Amino acid sequence: MKLLKNLDLTKGNILKSIVLFTIPISIGNVFQQLYNFVDAVIVGQTMGSNAYVAVGVTGSLTFLVLGFANGLASGLAVPASQYFGAKDYEKVRRGVATSIIIALVVGLILTLASLLCSDLLLKMINTSPSLFYNAEQYINAIFAGIIATIFYNLISHMLRALGDSKTPLIALIIAAILNVGLDFLFIAVFKWGTAGAGWATVLSQFLAGIACFIYMFYKYPYTRVKWADFKLTKDMTLYHIKLSIPMAFQFSIVAIGLIVQQSAVNSLDAIYNGVDGHIQDLYATAYVNASKINNFPSSILMALGTAMATYCGQNYGAKNAQRIKNGLIQATFVNIGLSIILASLSIPLSPYIVPLLSSDVPSESIPSTQYYLLIQGCFYCFLGGIYVYRSSLQGLGKSYITIAVGTIELVARIVVSILFTKYFEWQGLCFSDVTAWFFANIILIPAVIIVYKKIKIKFAEYKSCDDDNFKKLQNDDCVTSNNK
């Protein structure tokens, strides 16, 4: 199928290339959300709404750590896309080895730190005592498997950086099926409870990562790392860190805002529990329900961003400024169209999806879930804009800008979560994400324009540079003979 063909994004019809590259990533992301959704369904149907909500309330905490891990992995793959675009295949191989070492070291540190702090984090978000044990069991299993998660994300992003969005899709579909089987085995047969759901996710991702790595090793000769490639060089190591660490911190900064948001939701339940027969953890349930449903459209918009990171990275390596500009314009229109379609599906379908999540989800939570999704759905284009422009900057080697964007998101989400929840309760909290998205775009759009103009000037100067000096392009120190 042409859809699954490896793509060189430096040539051909721009819109067609972006769409064809995005579709397999979208399918893969949806499958990933699907097996996360099935996780929740199996937990909810076999263990009840308490266990289901307990797993759900850990979402912001797992995103704090796993978001950092995924941001690191996606950032580490950017040099590979740039080297591939420049046809420097030796550096592609060395870049893969460098990325593996950095990912392993960071993964070990994250694992130890997160396991030591898991209880503290759960207390920090005001986790209800009725949910604490199940939440703790689940989150510790997820944190123990951080290295497996990083490994899978790293190899997947590497393959996409080389124009292969097919292999991660196939691996993810297999992992989704495996995850469902392991869920039943660990939860229903072994009786491991919520920890079983966590271990099923970790193991399925690890096996998917191994499969992707083996395929990459044999399919693409320029990724066949040798022992000599694992000897780190200062320039390459610093370049990988420069692109990956800011992206990783950007995800974690956003996660801090989500933690405050989750804490505000839990505080609403703490206020209303027991008052006039108010159902325990009603808002936590509605928030988890909305998050589970909202993850599907969000994952599709995220796929467009992932495609743009590779697109911009390859064309940056090929020094094609005009193609970068045209791609950004095309992706903007694709985002708007996708946002309208996704909103028109997620909002009306939510009342039919919620009952699937647990055998005893309170019907009183459904209106709150719908209201949350309505507000979010009307502004999906802001969320898509974040993914498109942030990932494009990442592909262009400007990951540091994403920290400023993440900080803006953090401040907006915290202010709205605290103030709006205080005065407008649940209705106010529903606007916290939308406000964060809006202000992030206020920073991102001018940043993309400024970066593009600088790159256009730089590429014009590089026309007189020898191709052997491509490494100087990464360090912004190429000086043409006219400038000397």
Write structural notes for this entry.
There is one protein chain. The chain is an all-alpha fold. 82% of the residues lie in helices and 0% in strands. It has 16 helices and no strands. It has helices at residues 14-47, 49-57, 59-85, 89-124, 129-144, 146-161, 166-189, 194-219, 234-272, 282-317, 321-357, 365-377, 380-395, 400-429, 432-462, 470-475. Helix 4 (89-124) runs parallel beside helix 9 (234-272), helix 7 runs antiparallel to helix 8 (194-219) and helix 9 (234-272) packs parallel to helix 14 (400-429). The longest helix is centred in the middle third of the chain and has 39 residues, at 234-272. The protein is globular and about 65 Å long. The termini are far apart. Residues 1-5 and 466-484 have low confidence and may be disordered.
Topology:
Blueprint: H1 14-47, H2 49-57, H3 59-85, H4 89-124, H5 129-144, H6 146-161, H7 166-189, H8 194-219, H9 234-272, H10 282-317, H11 321-357, H12 365-377, H13 380-395, H14 400-429, H15 432-462, H16 470-475
Helix pairs in contact: 1-2, 1-7, 1-10, 1-11, 2-5, 2-10, 3-4, 3-6, 3-9, 3-10, 4-5, 4-6, 4-9, 5-8, 6-8, 7-8, 9-10, 9-14, 10-11, 10-12, 10-13, 11-12, 11-13, 11-15, 13-15, 14-15
The number of helices is 16
Global outline = globular
Task: Kindly report the average pLDDT value.
Answer: 85
Oligomer: single chain
Radius of gyration, in angstroms, nearest whole number: 22 Å
| Model regions low in confidence, pLDDT < 50 over at least 5 residues | 1-5, 466-484
Query: Quick one: biggest sheet?
Result: none
Distance between the ends: 51 Å
Which range does the strand content fall in? under 5%
Strand element count:
0
* Computed structural class: mainly alpha
The secondary-structure element order is HHHHHHHHHHHHHHHH
Helix share, percent:
over 70%
